[in-house]
Every structure is written in C-alpha cells, then in structure tokens.
Amino acid sequence: MSVSIIRRVASPKKVLTAAAVAAATAGMALSAAPAQAATGSASSAQAIAHRMIPDAAQFAAFSKIVSHESGWNPSATNGSSGAYGLVQALPGSKMASAGSDWKTNPATQIKWGLDYMNSRYGSPTAAWSFWQANGWY
Question: In the 8-state DSSP scheme, what is residue 42?
C-alpha cells in the first residue's frame, strides 16, 4: 500500500496510532531505533544464522525461537522487560560477552544466543522444546 493511499484513508497520526495499538495488542513495543542502525535485514540475519548453525534441525529450532522472540529484528526491544535483540537477552548487555558490537551486529547476537541455548538447554532443539512448553526460554 503506498503512502498516498494511506494518507487518503487516514491521517498519518491516525495510522501511527492504529499501528501502536495493534503492536501493543500483539505484545510488541514500538521504540526508537538504537543510536546505530542494525546491520542487515531479517533475511540477512537468517542467512548469517544458517551459516553459523549448519545442522538443519538445530537451525530450524533456533529460527523458530528467534521468529517468536523478535521476528528476526536485531534491534527488537521489549518495552516491558527491556529484553533486546534477536534472542531477547535480558538484559541485552549480556550479549557483550560475545562482542562489543552486540547492539548492532546480528552475528554477535546469534553467537551469544546459540551459546546460551547450548549451555542452558544443551541445544537449540532442546531450547525450542522448553519454549513450546513454557512460552519462553
């Protein structure tokens, strides 16, 4: 839908208000972007993860978690808890152990998330099983 069509349907303020209400209803938070824009899009973050997790079952489980947690948005921020990034680390600064560029680099976030899943659950597939049972990991 083009911007001109949106403007004909409703004022930009109403569109943004509707988007904020829809996001809040879905449990998402609209927030300002971090000081630096995230590197790459969701598809490039997925490609990075696929290279880092060559096993198909482990990648699929990791992907399901990240899809639910952040929609593959490296700058996703939970307005309630402050969880941040692809894997919604809480606090997000925990990911600094994987690299100083944790706020903007999907590869750093993926490395941290994979290490977390392996150390806490044994694997991404085990983390996904836990997520399915509990709605979080």
Answer: H
Considering the domain architecture, whether residues 47 and 14 belong to the same structural domain is answered as no
Residue 30 CB: number of other CB atoms within 10 A? 12
The alpha carbon of 19 is separated from its chain's Cα centroid by a whole number of angstroms, namely 19
Q: How many domains does the chain have?
A: 2
Q: Are residues 100 and 130 in the same domain?
A: yes
Contacts of 35 (CB under 8 A, 6+ apart): 103
Residues of the domain holding 14: 1-30
Please tell me the pTM assigned to this model.
0.70
pLDDT, tens digit (0-9, with 9 covering 90-100), for 14-64? 333 344 444 444 444 433 333 333 445 788 999 999 999 999 999 999 999
Q: What is the mean pLDDT of the chain?
A: 80
Residues 6+ apart with CB under 8 A from 58: 123, 124, 125
Rg (CA), the chain: 16
- Mean local confidence (pLDDT), 62-83: 96
